[in-house]
Amino acid sequence: MRAKIQESSEDYLETILILSQRNQYVRSIDIVNELGFSKPSVSVAMKKLRENGQIIMDDSGYISLTESGMAVATKVYERHQALTRLFEMLGVGKETAADDACRVEHVISDETFDRLKDHIEKLEQS
User: How far, in Å, CA of 70 to CA of 104, rounded?
Assistant: First the structure.
């Protein structure tokens, strides 16, 4: 169960990062709309992320990542992008590649990801 909780937190942090790149402000409703989850589910998740020190929510309800939240979000997002590129290079359709990358990004080891990233860079330079 622990892995599922961690995966969920990583997905929320990654979503906050993506939304913050698109918009100046991120609110819980933006996360609801992006992920298609219920308001209560997102509210519970934001509370846990606040308690874990990964996000800050101001009095207006705007959400920002803390340093530790940003570190997790950046790592997961980098993995997502690289894995999606690799799967697309292998001929996997865009949507399937992104969906599969979302699942793999949470379980792949740092060592394997680093080797994959090196391989992707070599392929892109060819």
Answer: 20
**How do residues 108-122 score in pLDDT, each as one tens digit?**
999 999 999 999 889
Return the sign of the alpha-carbon dihedral for residues 86, 88, 93, 99: positive
d(CA 46, CA 27): 10
Evaluate whether 102 touches 80 at the Cβ level (below 8 Å). Answer: yes
Say yes or no to pLDDT of 3 above 80: no
Angle between helices 2-22 and 39-51 (to 10 degrees): 100
Helix axes 28-35, 2-22, angle to 10 degrees: 110
**DSSP summary character for residue 64:** E
CB 117 within 8 Å of CB 80: no
Q: What is the sign, positive or negative, of the torsion defined by CA atoms of 32, 7, 87, 70?
A: positive
